[in-house]
Known about the structure:
Blueprint: H1 2-10, H2 19-29, H3 45-56, H4 69-80
Amino acid sequence: MASLCVDNLNKCQVPWSxxxxxxxxxxxxxxxxxxxVHVYRELxxxxxxxxxxxxxxxxxxxxxxxxxxxxxxxxxLDRIGIPYVRTG
Length: 88
């Protein structure tokens, strides 16, 4: 699904039901140097973890400190260039 979204953002044509949102995105991005690419979730474990965390609850979360332990571990691995291998 994510790669389909990237393809639609980079193309001139999208389904009519998404046209309104495409115009909004392009309007917000106007004047900015933005490149939209798809990254498999295995290569972006921090974003994948935070997405999963958000889907598990119906509340908004803002972390300024006291990050979840697993998130801190993923950040450390990412910072030193060690890939995280999901096992389950």
